[in-house]
Design brief:
Blueprint lengths: L8 E3 L4 H11 L5 H19 L5 E7 L5 E7 L3 E7 L6 H7 L4 E9 L6 E7 L8 E5 L2 E2 L3 H12 L7 E4 L2 E2 L1 H10 L4 E4 L1 E2 L2 E2 L5 E2 L5 H6 L3
Helix pairs in contact: 1-2
The structure holds 1-O-pyrophosphono-5-O-phosphono-alpha-D-ribofuranose and uracil (URA).
Uracil binds next to helix 6.
Length: 217
């Protein structure tokens, strides 16, 4: 569902079923194996929604009945870029939906004291400037990490309008900051939370996504 407040932001429809799955993900009692399995379910939904925001062209295919089906294929190569570490958890889901995808990575770490993002490295396809990019990171808190990643993509020649940021939980502060700085970038998320606390953690949130997904608590 497109957000009224933020025109380029799509938030999944808040159904009782989605809230049930998010309850499992967010509960402090959910152990890492169950957390990862539940996170994958939600990632499937947001990645599918993000793939609705790339450009497609018509493609006719012949079926075994000898007749044609009016289908589509991506108009440009799709590139998934994960913000390490937590964004990497969404890569295999993008590959499931779009096996032809190419993958790049950026390592950006949020300083635990200041919450400021630190860029460490990128490994991106050489022709990324011609791709439609799905940028993967499940958490958008201050927006610092996502904005740093967008700067990196833009510095490699990716037009801002060709970037879809695919996320699971966002703070209103993070969405405000990101969409004001990069109004052309599309954002897809499962839920927008209440606020950030004094340590810049999302409230109610779910704690540290990367630690819970990868079992490094
Ligand atoms: C987390 C998360 C985002 C970032 C969000 O990563 O995955 O990248 O914090 O916060 P921000 O919007 O305030 O920048 P973190 O750097 O903690 O590393 P991790 O992926 O290794 O858990
Ligand atoms: N990163 C997380 O994993 N969780 C937050 O709430 C903020 C940043």
């Amino acid at each position: 569902m497109a957000s009224k407040e933020w025109p380029n932001v799509t938030v999944l429809r808040r159904t009782p079923h989605l809230r049930h799955i998010m309850s499992i993900l967010r509960s402090v009692d959910t152990e890492p194996p169950k957390f990862a399995a539940t996170a994958d379910l939600i990632a499937r939904l947001v990645v599918a929604a993000a793939l609705e925001h790339v450009e497609y062209e018509d493609l006719k295919v012949t079926t075994p009945t000898g007749t044609t089906y009016d289908g589509t294929r991506p108009a440009k190569q799709i590139c998934g870029v994960s913000i390490l570490r937590a964004g990497e958890s969404m890569e295999h889901i993008l590959r499931e939906w779009m096996p032809s995808v190419v993958i790049g990575k950026v390592l950006i770490q949020r300083d635990e004291e200041t919450a400021l993002p630190k860029f460490v490295f990128d490994k991106l396809p050489s022709k990324i400037c011609n791709c439609q990019v799905i940028l993967l990171d499940p958490m958008l808190a201050t927006g610092g990490s996502a904005m740093k990643a967008i700067e990196v993509l833009h510095s490699h020649g990716v037009p801002l309008a060709n970037i879809v940021f695919c996320n699971i939980i966002a703070s209103p502060e993070g969405i405000d900051t990101l969409t004001k700085r990069f109004p052309e970038v599309k954002v897809v998320t499962a839920e927008v939370d209440d606020h950030l606390n004094e340590k810049k953690y999302i409230i109610p949130g779910l704690g540290d996504y990367g630690d819970r997904y990868f079992g490094t608590i």
